[in-house]
Design goal:
InterPro entries: AB_hydrolase_fold (IPR029058), Peptidase_S10 (IPR001563), Ser_caboxypep_ser_AS (IPR018202). The chain is about 40% helix and about 15% strand.
Length: about 325
């Protein structure tokens, strides 16, 4: 995302904050969360809401959401929860503003939003969640929470968020519910799904979630599966040549720890990453957002090793 787009997104979020933080006497929490418009927003025929849901009142922990009703017949369309990965990536800064949300910030001197013609709220009610606490606008008033965060707490907080969100938006409680995400959501989505299914067996009708399925894109599962998959995907989509594909699959052994690959393997992998200096690896057929993409997304094998090391530490 370009600097101008980032600044515009910050302005949009600031006004978004003002919109939902105003308290109106005699209205419901749902109505208080209603967002009627944003700077530079084109006219739309769907409702949007944003706000905080408490997940732990004792610790002062709350998660931020942004919800877009479906463009057409929201009363019958399914509800989809979107989670970005990281860990630490904002579902609003990435999922909403760059990938599948209805609004994309534009690089201009004044706040300007562009409608995304491929927004997922054309087919579903779309709920973006900033998770865990500390990501995006989600927060905790208990400092020790940050150092104690992990996949287990993240799943529990997200489940608590959903139960409380449905209390604020009861008209969507009976809708078919799906969870989708990318990257480290390869951990978030299955773990939250398991927790929902386990709790549904013994939950009251009030806490039951009409859970139907999951979707995960470029999922972070484990190093061997992920690294093999990214090479296979690039070759299948003609991003890399037959020769480079052959060299990588012949020379590299992904059953070994990623940081222990040979220099020969690293050389071939860096050729693979060089291709993504001119192609967006997260959206192969979309135009590049800015010309100096190589300076911003300059991938190298050493960065891949760092990410893999971080994931290894998180698993432990």
């Amino acid at each position: 995302m370009g600097l101008g787009s980032i600044i515009n997104l910050n302005v949009v979020i600031l006004v978004l904050y003002v919109c939902w933080s105003k308290q109106a006497l005699g209205v419901t929490e749902q109505e208080e969360d209603r967002v009627y418009g944003l700077p530079g927003q084109p006219p739309v025929n769907f409702k949007q809401y944003a706000g905080y849901i408490n997940v732990n009142e004792t610790h002062g922990r709350a998660l931020f959401y942004w919800f877009f009703e479906s463009v057409d017949q929201p009363q019958t369309k399914p509800l989809l929860l979107w989670l970005n990965g990281g860990p630490g990536c904002s579902s609003i800064g990435y999922g909403e503003a760059e990938e599948l949300g209805p609004f994309f910030p534009q690089n201009s001197s004044q706040p300007k939003l562009k409608l995304n013609p491929y927004s997922w709220n054309k087919t579903a009610n779309l709920l973006f969640l900033e998770s865990p606490a500390g990501v995006g606008f989600s927060y905790t008033n208990t400092t020790s929470d940050i150092s104690e965060l992990g996949d287990t707490i993240t799943a529990k907080d997200s489940h608590t968020f959903l139960i409380n969100w449905f209390k604020r938006f009861p008209q969507f409680k009976s809708h078919d519910f799906y969870i989708a995400g990318e990257s480290y959501a390869g951990h978030y989505v299955p773990q939250l799904s398991e927790l929902i299914l386990d709790n549904n067996h013994n939950s009251s009708e009030e806490d039951y979630i009409n859970f139907k399925g999951i979707m995960i894109g470029n999922a972070l599962l484990d190093d061997e599966t992920d690294q093999k998959g990214m090479i296979e995907y690039a070759w299948d989509h003609a991003v890399i040549s037959d020769g480079l594909y052959h060299n990588i699959t012949t020379i590299c052994n992904f059953s070994h720890p990623i940081q222990n690959q040979t220099d020969e393997c690293n050389t071939e992998l860096n050729k693979y990453f060089d291709v993504y200096k001119i192609i967006d690896m997260y959206s192969l057929y979309a135009p590049m957002w800015f010309s100096n993409i190589s300076n911003v997304r300059s991938h190298s094998f050493s960065k891949l090793v760092l990410v893999s090391f971080i994931n290894l530490e998180l698993k432990n």
